[in-house]
Amino acid sequence: MATLVGFALIAAQTSTPDTVDPLVALSADGGSTVGSVTPFFWSALGVAQFTITGTNGYASGIRSALASAGIIYAPAFTSSGTYTFTIAGLDALGSPVLVGGVPVSSTLTLTVAA
Q1: Which of 31, 80, 89, 110 satisfies CB 3.0 to 4.6 Å to 114 for a cystine?
Q2: pLDDT value of position 24
């Protein structure tokens, strides 16, 4: 009787590629004080551009997300309070990037002390 030695490999292939949903994030280094400039740390994945807006009237304008992360310095705050900033992911044409019909965005709340 002969003994057969070998191995078997069972595999499956799919034509659907792996995907990662686009992501944007915004953070700041702690709190801030009136008259100080605050650095915002941003990151973006799967978006061509982004914009940051704030309840204090701050608007970054459209920025390229060629790098996947960076720092933007917001102008100095002129009064104390709680402010909300939103980073929104945009496509190459400046339109909002949607995942499941919802715009890709992230919100940061920052308290500014006197």
Answers
A1: 80
A2: 92
